[in-house]
Design a protein that fits this description.
Elements: H1 7-16, H2 19-24, E1 28-34, H3 41-51, E2 57-63, H4 85-99, E3 108-111, E4 115-118, H5 122-134, E5 141-147, E6 150-156, E7 163-177, E8 187-203, E9 208-213, E10 219-227, E11 233-238
Helix pairs in contact: 1-5
């Protein structure tokens, strides 16, 4: 179900939330779903670039594919080079879980797998970030380090609920000059453009360590811990 405005809850929580706890909290995950063929998406890409600079956020940009078939009367279609059907499917699951609807909209920001916001509305996204930062009872503790050519991620959970541990690989930066569609002539400059997502395993009540190859130069990755069936995200870290 879609969450109501968190502004009041933020104000109440901030008064009681210790500063040290906020500094040690897991980053909040902001997933931006957009398309280079959608006229409203350039503004969302700009918002995500700014949000990605925050040290308390893991920002991931997902390109959906259902805009690729729509043609502009003058400039025809634009096939988004980063779009994937699997990324569109991830967005649809979020809309069923959060908004209780089978429909989707673009651009859309999902915060910690728990809240939905219009992707170009930075103020609303940041309100949800603060709400998630202040309400961290269900978080896990994650640590991640590089050992030679490998990455070692340790997840220390609380509680008994099963949580998926996911590896997301992304292009750290991408600049694309759009040659068709509604955004003809626009250059998309983006951060953390997702290229692949895979499941490393699951954690329940015992700490687990996951080891995988480090990304090549110019690429990045993040480990996110998420309740089963694409529920709320309870932990995340960028790869070093």
């Amino acid at each position: 179900m879609r969450r109501s405005s968190p502004v009041l809850a933020i104000a109440i929580a901030a008064a009681a939330f210790p500063a040290a706890a906020a500094e040690n909290a897991e980053p909040v995950v902001v997933e931006m779903f957009l398309s280079q063929a959608c006229s409203d998406s350039p503004a969302a890409a700009a918002v995500q670039r700014e949000i990605s600079k925050r040290p308390d956020v893991v920002a991931l940009t997902w390109h959906i594919d259902y805009w690729d078939v729509l043609a502009n009367r003058k400039h025809g279609r634009w096939e988004d080079p980063f779009a994937a059907a699997a990324f569109s499917a991830r967005q649809r699951v979020y809309n069923r879980n959060i908004r209780e609807r089978s429909t989707v909209f673009t651009p859309q920001a999902i915060v910690n797998g728990a809240a939905s916001e219009v992707g170009s509305r930075r103020e609303g996204i940041e309100e949800h970030i603060e709400f998630e930062r202040m309400n961290s009872d269900d978080r896990v503790s994650t640590s991640i380090k590089r050992v030679g050519d490998m990455i070692e991620a340790k997840v220390d959970p609380e509680g008994e609920d099963p949580r998926d541990v996911l590896l997301v690989r992304f292009a750290s930066f991408a600049a694309t000059r759009v040659g068709g569609g509604d955004n003809f002539g626009v250059t998309f400059e983006e951060r953390n453009v997702v290229r692949q997502i895979s499941r490393l395993g699951m954690v329940t009540h015992e700490p687990e360590t996951f080891i995988f190859p480090a990304p090549p130069q110019g690429q990045g990755c993040a480990v996110i811990v998420q309740h089963a069936n694409q529920g709320p995200i309870v932990g995340a870290r960028y790869c070093p």
